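Worked Example 4.2. Read the sequence first, then its C-alpha cells.
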Amino acid sequence: YTCALIASLPVDRVDRCPPNIAFDQSGRNVDEAVEQKKPAEWIKRRYKIVETVGMGSFGIVYKALDTHINSHVAIKEMKLAATEERYREEVQKRFIREVEILSRLTHPNIAKISDFGQTKKSLYLVMTYLPGGTLKSRLGKPIPFSIAAGLLVPIAKALSYVHKKGSIHRDVTPGNILFTDTEEPILSDFG
C-alpha cells in the first residue's frame, strides 16, 4: 500500500498496512489514523461491531449487535482526535445537544436513542439500526410523485413535531433521512 491509500482503506484492511509506512497523505501518523478507525474499547465491551456503515469527518457509524438485548443498533462514534483542538469543545457541545434533543423526542419518524457515552477520546450515541439505507443512496433516478410525497409527508410531520417541542433540526438532507425495513422514512442526525 502507499501512504495515500491509507485514508481510503476499509477498516479491516487498515490493520494490515506494512510497518514501513509512517504517514498518510495528510501527514498524520498512521498509528493515529488506524486508531481513529477502530471502535473504542468501551464500545466493544457491550456491542459486537458487525460492520462500518458510514464515515464522516468527525466520526464513524457502526452497525453493531447489542449483546445485552440481542438486537442490532447503530453506533455513532465521534473521535475527538479527528477534530482540530480549537473546534473540539464546540463539536462536543453539538454532539451532546443532538443526544439531548433525541432523548426528548418520541415520534414514529424520528430516530430513537438508546444509549450515550463519553470518554476523553470519544463520544458515542446508540440508536435503532435502520437497515433501509438513506434517501441519498436512492437519488439519481426519478422518483414517482406518489412515492416522493409518501416519503416527504412523514418527514414533514416529524419536523413539525420537532418545532412544537422547541427544537430545530439544522441539517435536513437526503443523507439524514433513513429507512426502516418496511420503508418508513426516519429523520436522524440532529447535530
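Now turn to a second chain, presented in exactly the same format:
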Amino acid sequence: DTFMEGAPDDDGQLMHDGFIQIFGLRADEYTHRLVRIFDLDNSGAIGFREFVYGLSKFQTDTFERRVQFAYRLFDLDGDGSLDKHELTKAMRAALDADCAQYDLRPEQQTVKLPMRARVKPYNPTVMGKPSELQEEVERMARNMGKRTMGIDEFRLLVSRFPQIFQPPEVLYRLMHLYSRDAAKVISHLPP
C-alpha cells in the first residue's frame, strides 16, 4: 500500500516526486540523494523491490547507524569517503535546508515522528552557530588537501555541529518507521 501512495508509473517505477510524496517530504538536496541511494540499478526511478529492500536497511535504529547513513548520504560519488567537495556541499545543504521540514522539536515538526523515534543522544536545538560550522568545514577542507574524511572524523564533526546531521537523522528515523513492514514483505518475495 505504501509504495502505491507514490503513484508509480505504468512500469511500476517511482520517480523522485512520488517517493517523497509517500513520506510527506519536500524536494531538496537530501531527498534527491536518498532516492539515488534507493535506486540500486541507477535507472533514475525506484522499483518495488528496490523500495522494500531499501526500507528494510533502516531496521536498526542506533546513533551509529544514523551517522553512517548521514555519511553515505553526503558521499556523492559513492566511494566510501568524503572529499573536500562533498564536505563543503554537505555543509551548504545543512545551512540551506528547510529548517521546518527537518525540525526535531515536536511543536514545529513537519515530518511527524512518534516519541520513540525522536532524538535522544544529544539536544539538536543546541547547535554551533552556522558561521562556526562554515569556518570549521572550510578549515577542515583546507587541511584535507587530497585526503578524504573518514567516518571517525565525520562523527566528531557531527558531535560539534549537530545541525549538519539533523536532516539525515530525520530521514533515517522516518525510513525506520516503515522498515519492519518492508522486512515482512521481503520475506514473502520470491528470490
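Notes for the reader: Residues 101 and 110 are 5 Å apart (CA to CA). The radius of gyration is 17 Å.
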